[in-house]
Structures are given as structure tokens and as C-alpha cells.
Specification:
Elements (H helix, E strand, L loop, with lengths): L23 H11 L5 H10 L12 H16 L1
């Protein structure tokens, strides 16, 4: 898998701890960085493909990514 997109991520110069918050406020702070990131969709897809279950990826929390995966399973099952 090509990871070149990571060089363009808005978070590349930020502390990784910012994207692995322990509370909802921290999640919202991390998501603000993702809002205008030019590789947000690539980041989200990476997290979904690799089933990363911690942190904010592509502007989505763990819970949001689980919902996306459930919806995808439902769509492919029908």
C-alpha cells in the first residue's frame, strides 16, 4: 500500500498524543486538525483497512469508524 499521502497530512508536525486523546474534548480538538486536511479520506481509509481501533484518523473517532465498518458490512451483505 502506498503511504505517500502521509507526507501531506495536516498532523505530520503535531504530537501523536493529540490524536490519541483520552476524552471527548481531546477528540474534538484532534478532529479540528483533520477538517481541512487534503489527505483526510486517505487517512480514514487507511484506518478502516487496517482496523485501527484507537485514536482519531481521517477526522473520525473509534466509534465513528466502527459505524462506518458496520454500514459497509450491511451494504455488502445485501
Amino acid at each position: 500500500m502506498d503511504h505517500d499521502w502521509m507526507r501531506y497530512a495536516a498532523c505530520r508536525d503535531r504530537s501523536p498524543a493529540q490524536f490519541f486523546p483520552s476524552d471527548g474534548v481531546g477528540v474534538e480538538v484532534a478532529k479540528r486538525t483533520c477538517v481541512e486536511c487534503c489527505v483526510r479520506m486517505e487517512c480514514l481509509e487507511y484506518a478502516l483497512i487496517h482496523r485501527i481501533d484507537h485514536g482519531v484518523w481521517g477526522g473520525c473517532s473509534e466509534r465513528e469508524r466502527r459505524r462506518i465498518l458496520r454500514r459497509r458490512r450491511t451494504l455488502t451483505a445485501t
